[in-house]
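Quick check before the chapter quiz. The format below is the same one you will see on the exam, so make sure you can read both the input and the output lines.
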Amino acid sequence: MPDVTPAPGGRAQASKGDGAPVDATLLRASPWVGALIPGRYGPQSASAAAVGLVAEPLLELAICNIMPRRGMEEALSERLGTGFGLPLPGIGKALFNERLGIAWDGHRRWRAWAPIGQGWGHGKDLVQALREALDGLGAVVDQSHGHAAIRIEGPRVRALLAKGTSLDLHPERFRAGDCAPITIAGTAIHLTALTDDPALAVQLQLFRSHVEAFAHWLVRAGGEFGLEVREV
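Here is the expected output.
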């Protein structure tokens, strides 16, 4: 556990093992800290060649829901395309560029996400930008503080997911740009395939309160394939 000491101005500051300062506010805000310990897991955990999965908790990700008003889906989609370069994707699909991602999230509902720091100061900046662009065509609801996200990639991602979900993960059925709501270990998850060249990389978004349960499942299920968890 990092040592936390008062910083000038009364703001707490933490220190990693190597002495590098870490913003303690971010440490408190991330549900992954303490739930998913960085390192390698598996019978050959000391061997880099044995790693079949790499998990990277995403600390700074703005997340929100977009819900068009009845009869306004087409107009809202056009407005998103004009303002952000991404229209509403179809059922089970996701679109993303370097600044923003949008994925289908159920009947007449989509979710958008963006890395904080790439033009978005914090989650509310993304929400405000979307609300202004859509101008009443739909509702935009901030989900950043209630959700957490993690990226998992590697040649054994499909095998890992197959342990927890009945979703058809065949490469011809689930590839880059596909998404689905799934359940793993009793946890509701929104799954998006980010890329599949050369290996599948996915992003999982889940409720913050379910992070510990999911982290426990990930370590136990992923250890067989050689799991490397990167630092938050």
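If your answer matched, good. The chain has five helices and 15 strands.
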